[in-house]
UniProtKB/TrEMBL annotation:
<keyword id="KW-0862">Zinc</keyword>
<keyword id="KW-0479">Metal-binding</keyword>
<comment type="function">
    <text>This enzyme scavenges exogenous and endogenous cytidine and 2'-deoxycytidine for UMP synthesis.</text>
</comment>
<protein>
    <recommendedName>
        <fullName>Cytidine deaminase</fullName>
        <ecNumber>3.5.4.5</ecNumber>
    </recommendedName>
</protein>
<feature type="domain" description="CMP/dCMP-type deaminase">
    <location>
        <begin position="21"/>
        <end position="157"/>
    </location>
</feature>
<dbReference type="InterPro" id="IPR050202">
    <property type="entry name" value="Cyt/Deoxycyt_deaminase"/>
</dbReference>
<dbReference type="InterPro" id="IPR002125">
    <property type="entry name" value="CMP_dCMP_dom"/>
</dbReference>
<dbReference type="Pfam" id="PF00383">
    <property type="entry name" value="dCMP_cyt_deam_1"/>
</dbReference>
<keyword id="KW-0378">Hydrolase</keyword>
<dbReference type="InterPro" id="IPR006262">
    <property type="entry name" value="Cyt_deam_tetra"/>
</dbReference>
<comment type="similarity">
    <text>Belongs to the cytidine and deoxycytidylate deaminase family.</text>
</comment>
<dbReference type="GO" id="GO:0004126">
    <property type="term" value="F:cytidine deaminase activity"/>
</dbReference>
<dbReference type="InterPro" id="IPR016193">
    <property type="entry name" value="Cytidine_deaminase-like"/>
</dbReference>
Length: 161
């Protein structure tokens, strides 16, 4: 007989002002990273800021390419840069902001599947949730974790059976 599985995932939607100072400054870093995006093909600018255990912040932005699939999303530019340059530091939090060219406000860029998977690797490696802060329109922030964003995710435990 089939068993119904009910998953519980959590996210909070709050105002920027309700964030802690640390969270607020990471959001500002992500918004700054938006201005460094290289997105001449989509005109969709994304910035990500990764906060590490020792408070180092590593930023990334989407980097596009004339050969479209060779480009990379902001989240992976940032998290891979953090992994490459600070291999032993835990990842506490990632803030993500996005804005189409000439838009007055931010739009929520709910990370693509590849970025969720890439971030999950680091969450699984450190066995501690990575907090995510998504900038939404009107200065609202969606707070969740990588695990909540990627239920039924595949990680190293899956390989062991
Ligand atoms: N993009 C990101 O950088 N992050 C996301 O969460 C969604 C999409 C980028 C990829 C591409 O450069 C552009 O946004 C349009 O898809």
């Amino acid at each position: 007989m089939a068993k119904k599985l009910t998953l519980h995932i959590e996210a909070d939607l709050c105002d920027f002002d309700e964030l802690s100072i640390v969270e607020q400054s990471l959001v500002l870093e992500a918004q700054q990273a938006v201005t460094q995006a290289y997105a001449p093909y989509s005109n969709f600018y994304v910035g990500a800021a990764v906060l590490l255990a020792d408070d180092t912040v590593v930023k990334g932005s989407n980097q596009e390419n004339a050969a479209y699939p060779s480009g990379l999303c902001a989240e992976r530019v940032a998290i891979f840069s953090a992994g490459a340059n600070h291999p032993r530091k835990e990842v506490k939090m990632v803030a993500i902001a996005a804005r189409p060219k000439d838009a007055a406000d931010y739009v929520m860029a709910s990370s693509c599947g590849n970025c969720r998977q890439a971030m999950m690797e680091y969450e699984s490696k450190q066995d501690k949730p990575i907090q995510l802060l998504f900038v939404c329109p009107s200065n609202e922030i969606l707070k969740t974790t990588v695990g909540d964003l990627l239920p039924f995710g595949f990680d190293s435990k899956s390989l062991k059976g």
